[in-house]
Write the structure tokens for this entry.
Amino acid sequence: MYGTTVAGRYRLTEAIGSGGMGTVWRAEDLHKSHDIALKIIPVGGGDPVREAAFRREAHVAARLSHPHVVAVHDHGAADVDGRRILFLAMDLVDGQPLNTLTGRPRPVAETLTWAIQISKALEAAHHCGIVHRDLKPSNILIDPASGGTAKLCDFGIARLADATHHTLTVTGVAIGTPAYMSPEQARGDTTLGAPSDLYSLGCLLHELLAGSVPFTGTGWQVLNQHLNDAPAPLSALRAGVPRELEQLVLELLDKNPDRRPTAADTRTRLTQLRTALAAFADASTAVPHPQPLTRVATTIDRAAEGREPRGRFAAVSAGAVTAAAIAVELSLTTTLPNAWTTCLGSLAGLLLAVLYLLDPPQPAHPEQLRITTACLLTTLLLAGGTALAVLVNAPRLWASALAIAVFGGPALLAFATGVRRLVEISLHRSSWPADLATTAGIFHTAVVLLTGHHAGLSAATLTAVGVVLWPAAALFTAMLTPGGFRAGLAPPTRTGRVAHRPHAAQPRMP
């Protein structure tokens, strides 16, 4: 077909790639005298399914105009060498597909930049009601002409989210690439929504950061893993990945599409992470002499010490919130004079602040226990104090006191871990401020349960109150702590910058 002119306008000059639906050619637009990428889909004697796929692709692509989406300018049908073909004229991107850069972990900063750009493209598509359905590295082009930016292409199997009256997928038949399929796509669901693309983005992020996709194996094995298996945390595969980034990837890979973040939320969180990383990088350059790469991680760990003033501010703020709340709780639930309630609340808040001032946030490591000494000490003291109170007030219940002493600590620690995770996920806090809010919740709960016990409430009622009050008080404290202490971001291990050399003119469209 070399030299052939399509539709009297596009002269084919070089085959530059192929995808699931056809071949992509470099072509000269004779009307505008510049090169474009022309995707050609042969339909032979007439294939209504293929033609429907093409028309949908053209319709979807024409609706999108975004810096990180390959623009589509024209489409139609023509006869070439006695064969019926469909064609799609697009921008020619003289770059390399992202799949040529995968297979090994990429620098975190570079990964964040690409992920933000892809999230922006998905955000624009989802705003138009468009679901890509085949997000993978080969459908992302890295364009050196625009500074190595990522551009999303090939909406060949995309569908309009609201076009439920027709589809090329039937229940039980999956269309897409297994390594990046969402669970609902693996099941062959006919009504895929925007969360499906976010799951695929999670798979892509996992591959860029860890060097491999979350699940591997044969096609059906991978589909089964998408449906049933939990992905390995990134911290188990690569040291130095920020915890908030690891958490975001796990949320994107949630089996339940309703729990996945949106493209807009993903973009926002990735941007915040990149800003934090840039701050660490700026701090690491404020040294008088060059350092070997083996010492750069140490420099960033030291730069993380700058978080401690904000950690102190968070501890004092949480202590003040706790003091005020406990004073109000005592005023409402006891007959103590206001001076006493204020004094007791202040003592509780002061104790909380001191505990966390003595246990400031530290640089995170994958093997680190994700609970602070302050929270551990508080839960164990609460369990031991409860067992001692039962033994002193009712010696005949020594067996219950012994059970509380043996099992109370582990049970409270397990519950504390659950509360901390709730704060992390619900309010997007990092581990240290979430742990601080969890311990504040322990203080609130202990005070209310103590007053409830004196009021004669049963053990079952007190337990029910504690189960509800603890997470509520933790969330309350986290929301009222100024700034949410986003400085709790775990510092990444710095990797050397890798110069991005534009690939030789190798335009490719899937």
